[in-house]
Amino acid sequence: MDRLSGWPLKAGVVALLFALPFIPPFDREDLLRWLIGAALIAAQAIAFDFTAGYINVVNFGFAAFVGLGGYTSTLLAVRLGVSPWIGMFVGAAVAALVGFFTGALTLRLRGIFAAVMAWFVGLALLGLTRNLTDLTRGALGLNAPTLLVTADNRPYYYIIVVMMLVTFVSLRYIINSHVGLAFRAIGQNIEAARASGVDPTRYRVLNFTVSCAFAGWLGGFYAHYYGILTPDVMNTSHTIEVLAAAYIGGRGSLWGGALAAFPLIFFVEWLRTSLVDLPGLHLVIYGLLLILVMMYYPGGIAELLRSIQRRLKRSST
User: Fold this and answer.
1) What is the CA 45 to chain-centroid distance, rounded?
2) Cα angle vertex 202, ends 235, 245, to 5°?
3) What is the pLDDT of residue 276?
4) What angle do CA 122, 128, 132 make, to 5 degrees?
5) Is the peptide bond before 25 cis (omega within 30 degrees of 0)?
6) Residue 219 belongs to what domain range?
7) What pLDDT is recorded for position 71?
8) Cα–Cα nearest to 64, from 122, 115, 131
9) Phi/psi at 258 (5° precision)
10) Which of 177, 176, 194 is nearest to 185 (CA)?
C-alpha cells in the first residue's frame, strides 16, 4: 500500500518534468538550455550516487568517464560516420570497460585510497585527451555532429529527461534486487558483509562498472547536444558539480541528487550570467553548501523530506 500511495506523487513529478517547457518562463530558449543542463547533471548525480551512496566509494574521476563516452561517440561519428544514436551506446560500453579495469585495480583498496586512485585514472584520461592531438585535437576541441537537425532545444530536453528517467529506473531496480542488498551491506560494513558471504571486491567492481557505463552514455548526449567537445569536460570541477548535487540531495537516495540538481544548476547559471567578473564562484558556492549540509543535515534534501513525511504520518494517526 505504501508503494501504491507513492505512485500519484511520482506520476505528478514526471508530468511536471514533461510540462515544464510549456510553462512560462521555462519556454524561453535560454531557460530551456538551463533545464537541459540541469537534467544532465541530475542524471549524472543519480549514476554518481549509485557508487558513492551504496558502496561508499567516491569516484573522483567520474567526469573523465563522462568525457570518455563523449569522445568515443564523437570519434566514431567523425572518423567512421557512425550514427550518434549508436555511438552513445558504444561510448557507454567503452566507459564501462575502462571502469571495469579501473575498479579491478583500485577497489581492492579501501576508503580514500580507492577514491584517490579513481581520481588518478581520471587525470590520466584527461591528459591523454589533451596530448593526443592527432586524434582528439586537444584544446581545439572536436566538432561533434548533433543528435537532431534543429535549433530548437525542446526535443533535446525530452531526450535527456527520458535518459534521466531510464538511468533512475534502471539503477533503482538494481538497488532493490539481491545485488543491491549486497551493495548496501558493503557500504554499511564491509567486514560484516564479507563475513556474511559477500565478495566485496566483486560487487564493488560491478557497481563501479555500471555507474561508469551510464556516465559514458550521458557523456555521449553531452557531446552531441553541445556540438563541441574539449578536454575540459573531464576536469575534476565537473565531478565536484555532480558530487555537490548528489550530496546536497542526499547520498544513498538516487532521487535526491536529481531533485537538488535543478535549483542548484539554475542558481549557478544565474550567477555565471550575472557575475561574469567572478569566474569559479560557483565552486565556492558548492563548497559552502556542502559544508552546511554536512554540519546541519548530513542526509540532505532526501532525509529532510523523509522526516517531514514521518511527522505528517505521526500527526495524522
Assistant:
1) 3
2) 35
3) 66
4) 160
5) yes
6) 2-316
7) 97
8) 122
9) -65, -40
10) 194
CA distance readout (Å), 38 to 128, 168, 303: 28, 15, 21
Relative to beta strand 142-143, strand 228-229 is antiparallel
The mean pLDDT values, 10 residues at a time, for the chain of 317 residues are 56 89 90 95 97 92 96 95 96 97 85 84 93 90 92 94 96 95 92 90 95 97 94 91 92 91 89 74 81 83 83 76
Residue 279 one-letter amino acid: P
Sign of CA dihedral 253, 257, 258, 262: positive
> Across the strands, what pairs with 142?
229
Question: Would the CA dihedral through 162, 260, 68, 174 be positive or negative?
Answer: negative
The length of the chain, given as a count of residues = 317
Amino acid 4: pLDDT: 38
Please, are residues 160 and 223 in contact by the beta-carbon 8 Å criterion? no
d(CA 174, CA 105): 23
Give the model's pLDDT for residue 2: 42
Query: What is the number of domains present in the chain?
Result: 1
Q: Is the whole model's pTM more than 0.85, yes or no? A: yes
Of 244, 239, 242, 249, residue with least CA distance to 284? 244
Task: Please report, as a single letter, which amino acid is at residue 9.
Answer: L
**In what helix (H) or strand (E) does residue 75 lie, and over which residues does it extend?**
helix 62-80
Residue appearing with cell numbers 544532465: 40
CATH of the domain at 206: 1.10.3470
3-state secondary structure of 179: helix
Helix, strand, or coil (residue 142): strand
Q: What is the pLDDT of residue 22?
A: 92
